[in-house]
Structures are given as C-alpha cells and as structure tokens.
Amino acid sequence: MNIKRLSTQQKNFHTELDHLLAFEATQDEQLEGTVAAILKDVRARGDAAVLEYTQRFDRLNISDAAQLEIPAAALRSAFENLPAAQRTALEQAAQRVTAYHQKQVQTSWSYVDSEGNTLGQKITPMDRVGLYVPGGKAAYPSSVLMNALPAKVAGVGELIMVVPTPDGVQNALVLAAAHLAGVSRVFTIGGAQAVAALAYGTATIPRVDKIVGPGNAYVAAAKRRVFGVVGIDMVAGPSEILIICDGQTNPDWIAMDLFSQAEHDELAQAILLTPDADFIAAVAASAERLLPTMPRHGMIHTALQNRGALILVKDLNEACAISNRIAPEHLELSVDSPQEWLLHIKHAGAIFMGRYTSESLGDYCAGPNHVLPTSGTARFSSPLGVYDFQKRSSLIEVSKQGAATLGAIAAELAMGEGLHAHAQSAEYRYRKSN
C-alpha cells in the first residue's frame, strides 16, 4: 500500500499539505443543482416527492407515506430482542454519554444592578429536533445515541429521527438505540429529501426547529441550503484523524487507529505526525501487514492512498503547530505527558490523550460527543452538545430610576444615529412621568 510520505523539510511541504487537505466535494456544482431541485420538489409536493425519491434512491416500493414510519412497538421489540452483550454495551454507552452531557446543562440566571434593573438570561430547550442518522455504507447506532441523548438532556420536547434503509433493510441495533435514547418518531428516509422533509414538513413528517447529525455530501449540501429555515449543527465533511506520536507507541496500534477512520469512507483522512523516521517505516510496515485482515480493506486502502499521509516533523512542537493549522476532527496525542502537549493545542474537535486512548472509544462510549467539526472548522466550531439544543433569551427589567439613567444614554446614542423614535421611546419613560 502506497501511503504518501512527507517531511516538513521538503521545500514544497506546505503546498503538498494544502493539496492533501483540500476537500471541495460538497461544493460540486452538479451536486448542488441536484440538491436544490430535490429541496424545491419536496417543499412543493411534500409526501409525494419524498416517496418518489425514496423509491428511486433506496429502492423502497412504498405507495403510502405512513409506511415510512417505524412504529414505536417495533423499536421496543428491536431493543428487547438484542443479544444480551449488545444490549448491555448499548445501555452502558448510553449511560456514559448521558452522564457526560448532563455536565453541559446551562441554567437561567439573572442579577440586579445598582439602580434596581434586573438583567439576565433565560435558557429554554427547543420544541422539536430532527436527527439525521446515516444508513448507507454502514449502520450507526452510536450516532443515534450521540444525537438524541444530548437533546433529551437539554429537554427537547420531540425528537424526529430519519435514517435511510436501502432495499428496506433495517438495522436492529439502530432501532434499539432509538428506543433506548427516547426518540419520539423514526422515518425510513435519507438523503436531501429527508433534510427537506424535516425542514419544510409534509403531511406525514413534522417540521422541526433544528437538524443535527452527519450524512453524505448530498445531506451536507441540503443542510447548508435549509439553514435559516431551520437551525443546523454543522456541515460535516468526511471523517478525519490526526495522530501526533513521539515514536514510542506500538506501531500496530497507530496503524489500526489510522484504519479506524479510513474505514468510514473512501474520502476519509488519516495522518500521522512524528519526529521519528524509523517509526514511520514501522507504521507503514504494520499497515501493510494488517490491511488484508480488515473486512473493509478496499475502502481503507483507497482512503489512505488518496488522502492519508505519514509526515516526518522536526519535533513535537512543530507537530502541534501543524495540527493547529489542520484543526482536525479527531486528534490523538500518543505521547508521554499528553497534558503538557495539550497546552500547545488550540484547534481540534476532540483530543485523545495518552497511548491507551484510542479514538474509537470516543466514537462509542467514552462520553463526549462524536459529532465533531471537520475540514478545519474546529477553528471556530465545537462538538455537538446540550448547548446545541438550548436557546438563550436575554432578560431586561428596568426600574423607574433605571429608565431615567439608561433612557438618557439611549436617547443620546439614538439621536446620534438619526433614529428619533428610538430616542423618544426612551425619553417618554422618564420625561413624561416626572
């Protein structure tokens, strides 16, 4: 397997790195045109359009939109009939994810200033949220937990889940996770048509306030287009992992960590940064030996060959600087004293510290959310959390004394802006009452 090898000492290193990181598939003009047409059609024709696209793309021969919904009893049955080991693992993961997100809950607050004005913030949950769970190349019960549980902790009233089921194949573990997480309703639709149905509503599928969860390029493009009609969490790209290693970790572990993201998608990215040239050779040898043992070896091979890299750096300081430039979705600090090197990291979706902390633990059961910013957006974006399902309203209650003091300030500034009604609105409350 030919994984690209780079060194920061190369004259063209930064150009090579930019080329490696480039990902613009979600901006493809043909894709964007297709998505725009689907959104417009679903908005105009509702259930009829959703059924048509579901028949075309997922090969589901359904004539009644009501058949797209999976009954609550079927979700419960899927959970109750899981093998004991799977059910226990799912419950344990749910408990850990819930416990972590309970730490994120924000509460309303207020204070009274020196003039008796009450100022504060009211926190309220959203009424209804749409959860997009991928279901094309793989089934993701973990995504059900990561999307639904923070919303439940936040107090969202109703959770509407959509998941594509190509050829009508439903994954029992996904349905069981929906039951365990308290999802309100589940519909077997996906793609841009599912995003449109959630954003605009149809006779069968209720309109939501926000859509969260990752999907393919069509889903990402659709979410971007409906933003403003509804809220969205983020526009997610292919999965990424960046590993900073000092060369002292077992190379088999590092190779498998690179595989863990490469097996998601042919466009996934897996990069190693290390100051040890011999370690690069050892990881490459491990990857060559272990790849044939992977059921998804073809996908891993393509991802690593096209978007993977083993990069030799001068030292760990330079590795951290490059990591901050990349702003990866997942960052592993596979080094001694990871807490020390954490101080050098500014941008990453999730940071996995120490040699025993594989990224895969974060995907399933460590506790933090696995819905993370990709494609460098960790520079300004954060993991999905309870705060994504709560809204903040400012509170202002002005006393009679405050109306005079604040009114004079506001009137002066309003007149400076040429907004006389603003000024008089403030002045009425202290000049006319005296």
The major beta sheet can be summarized as:
6 strands, parallel
Distance between the termini: 84 Å
Poorly predicted tracts of residues: none
Tally of individual helices? 17
**Radius of gyration, in angstroms, nearest whole number:** 25 Å
Query: How much strand content do the residues show?
Result: 15-25%
- The shape, in one word, is globular
| Helix-strand category | alpha/beta
* Helix fraction by DSSP (H/I, runs of at least 4): 40-55%
Instruction: Summarize model confidence as the mean pLDDT.
Output: 95
Tell me how many strands there are.
Answer: 15
Strand arrangement, largest sheet? 1-12-11-10-13-14
Description:
By secondary structure, this protein is an alpha/beta fold. Helix content is 46%, strand content 16%. It has 17 helices and 15 strands. The protein has helices at residues 13-21, 29-45, 47-58, 72-80, 84-102, 141-154, 172-181, 191-200, 217-226, 251-262, 277-290, 297-307, 316-326, 338-342, 359-364, 400-416, 420-431, and strands at 4-7, 69-70, 109-112, 118-125, 128-132, 158-162, 185-187, 210-212, 231-232, 240-245, 269-274, 309-312, 330-334, 350-353, 390-397. The strands form 3 sheets. A 6-stranded parallel sheet has the order 1-12-11-10-13-14, sandwiched between helices. Strands 2-7-6-5-8-9 form a 6-stranded mixed sheet, with helices on both faces. Strands 3-4-15 form a 3-stranded antiparallel sheet, with no helix packed on it. Helix 2 (29-45) crosses helix 3 (47-58), helix 5 runs parallel beside helix 6 (141-154) and helix 16 packs antiparallel against helix 17 (420-431). It is globular and about 85 Å long. The relative contact order is 0.14.
